[in-house]
Write a structure and sequence with these properties.
The protein is mostly beta strands and 522 residues long. It has seven helices and 23 strands.
């Protein structure tokens, strides 16, 4: 019997309405209460002992971050996870030393306790005593900033010393250190003139085009052969470590080396073993008032920018059978404006003494002004010693013929064999010295010819590379029925073999005065 349209509409609404109601009411589903209680059980308090061993801080922290915290924006920078809203780590709780919501100060002599005044909705981290143990400092992460709080170690009374308006920068770790006066702290702040975060463009930064074609050659190939290729331009970001080098060298900081003969005893701190503890103890041992030109300078070029890579490929894939496919393709790329370390103030004495004075450009002469930083090593510029520039002067080219034979699910066996014949040329295989392979020494042999004189086979050139891989589903108990089926079924055996040959080996003579002086090392 047919249903009239009006009734059909009503019936459809009745069917759809419960589904809509269920969808609107969907929320996070919690496990049974006993499981929630187990996960939310309060862990044992963490402890921080004061340097004078008079007070111990008992710290309570949340074991897990909230969903709201995990939903915060995140920037991935060289392995770090940064929250751009707070200028700190993406996770403010759920990791060791974070998510602290309660601090109790307990005197070791009589057991008396004092609760530290905590900020509202506290998410505290980086708890540390002053060198004499009279004060306690900690950071508090708010919705859009990080604060520094200071507490009295005897009463627990605390206040915010640096508010969100000052914008503490905790992206690289603990941003604050106590000085020896037990009153002053040195903190890293966000530069006052820093603008808003750049907006990620919707349009790709470079072209990315490709094609795929099924040729029908005299009816022989059919749909089993595919010819494909493409071209694209991609950009590589300037990674964090280069800028960290600049931030930890002259003229930004007064970096020095402390030896046993120059450090204030004891050389190792009596309490604490972190880098911040050593820094707090021996910051005063580094001489001040030294000409910054005598320190190692590290800087980036004024026109420093992102390098780009042009990549292209052309290959053919043919289906030999329903389970076997063979593919061969030519792949090439060229990197333009890659990163390179340039010796911007070379010591001319080494070139002259070893008969390479012809490498020195006309008009460049060794420093002759006694008492200047560059005089002793006969540098080109008297005002500095070692100057390391990070520049976009490196390049590389790669050409490779890649072949692969793939097998899919032949009686439970899947795998493949691949072979690549390639050649890589560059003038700098790595921006830093790797001491073996890659870029043994970062600086060019001739500091006045960093391009043509360095162009050669790359330290990362592997002309012949072969590999075999397989995955085999073990045939017994594949259905996984019964107790034995669940215990013994569903296993796989897999393996990978890789072989490469042809990487360059270069002998290096290090400038050492020890037992290896005058000897070449590989």
């Amino acid at each position: 019997m047919p249903i009239r349209p009006a009734r059909a509409i009503v019936l459809a609404l009745l069917v759809i309405a419960p589904a809509l109601t269920a969808q609107e009411a969907q929320k996070y589903i919690l496990p049974p209460p006993n499981i929630v209680a187990a996960f939310d059980a309060e862990p044992l308090p963490q402890t921080v002992l004061s340097p004078n061993k008079q007070v111990v801080a008992l710290i309570k922290a949340r074991s897990y971050p909230t969903i709201a915290e995990l939903a915060q924006p995140m920037l991935r920078l060289a392995g770090e996870r940064v929250n751009p809203k707070t200028n700190g780590p993406h996770r403010a709780s759920g990791l060791p030393g974070t998510g602290i919501y309660s601090i109790t100060l307990k005197k070791i002599s009589d057991g008396a306790e004092a609760a530290v005044t905590m900020p509202p909705q506290a998410r505290v981290s980086h708890v540390k005593f002053s060198p004499d143990g009279s004060r306690l400092a900690f950071l508090n992460t708010k919705e859009g900033a990080i604060e520094l709080w200071i507490a009295d170690a005897s009463t627990g009374s605390a206040r915010a010393a640096v508010t969100g308006a000052d914008r503490i920068n905790a992206t690289t770790g603990d941003p604050c250190d106590w000085l020896r006066d037990n009153v002053t702290m040195v903190c890293e702040l966000v530069p006052a003139g820093r603008g808003p975060a750049p907006v990620e463009p919707i349009v790709p930064s470079g072209p990315n085009v490709g094609f795929a074609w099924n040729p029908h050659l005299f009816g022989m190939t059919g749909t089993k052969t595919v010819i494909r290729g493409g071209f694209r331009i991609t950009y590589d970001p300037a990674y964090y470590n280069m800028f960290l080098n600049v931030a930890t060298a002259a003229p930004i900081v007064n970096a020095g080396v402390i030896t046993t003969a120059t450090c204030t005893a004891p050389c190792l701190p009596t309490s604490g073993f972190l880098g911040s503890d050593v820094r707090s103890e021996h910051l005063g041992d580094i001489p001040r008032g030294v000409n910054p030109g005598r320190r190692n300078y590290t800087q980036v070029a004024p026109n420093f920018h992102e390098p780009y890579t042009q990549s292209w490929s052309l290959g053919v894939q043919h289906e030999i059978s329903s389970r076997i496919v063979f593919e061969s393709r030519y792949v090439g790329n060229r990197v333009v404006g890659n990163f390179q370390t340039v010796n911007a103030n070379p010591s001319l004495a080494g070139l002259i003494d070893n008969g390479f004075s012809s490498f020195i450009p006309s008009g460049v002469t060794p420093c002759a002004t006694s008492g200047t930083p560059g005089f002793a090593s006969e540098r080109a510029d008297c005002n500095f010693t070692n100057v390391r520039n990070r520049e976009n002067t490196a390049f590389s080219t790669y050409h490779g013929l890649q072949s692969e034979l793939r097998l899919r699910n032949f009686h439970g066996l899947s795998g493949g064999f691949s072979y690549t014949f390639s050649k890589t040329l560059d003038n700098a295989s790595e921006i830093f010295s790797t001491f073996s392979g890659g870029n043994t020494v970062a600086g060019a042999q001739n500091p006045f010819d960093i391009s043509k004189g360095e162009r050669a086979l790359s330290g990362l050139d592997f002309p012949n590379t072969a590999s075999i891989y397989f995955v085999y589903e073990l045939p017994f108990f594949k259905a996984q029925k019964g107790f034995l089926g669940h215990v013994l079924g569903g296993y796989q055996a897999s393996g990978t073999w890789r072989y490469s040959i042809g990487q360059l080996c270069c002998d290096v003579k290090p400038p050492s005065t020890g037992p290896n002086n005058g000897r070449f090392q590989s």
